[in-house]
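In the current project phase, our protein records have gained a structure token line. A sample record follows, to show the layout:
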Amino acid sequence: MRDTSWMGNGNCRNLPPDLFFPTDGAGVEVAKRICEGCPVLDICLDYAIENHVDHGVWGGESERSRRRIARQRRVHLRSKQSLRDL
């Protein structure tokens, strides 16, 4: 299990968790606004992607956005590995 001590430094630390598990697009936008400028934004996003969290807003990104980012990272990593193999 990865260290989660960073969670205590997030903009979300004193807010109800339900805000970050919205059921509609308006709720997603509210959660994303809370994430703006968060000191642990990147760590939060990485945590969600690396742990395959498939629900809620993490690191200012929705589930769909995180899936896209994860795909882009995999493609980038494969390209980088292919270049090393040349």
About this structure: The chain has a mean pLDDT of 92. The two ends are 36 Å apart (CA to CA). The CA atoms of residues 32 and 60 lie 5 Å apart. The chain has one domain: 5-85.
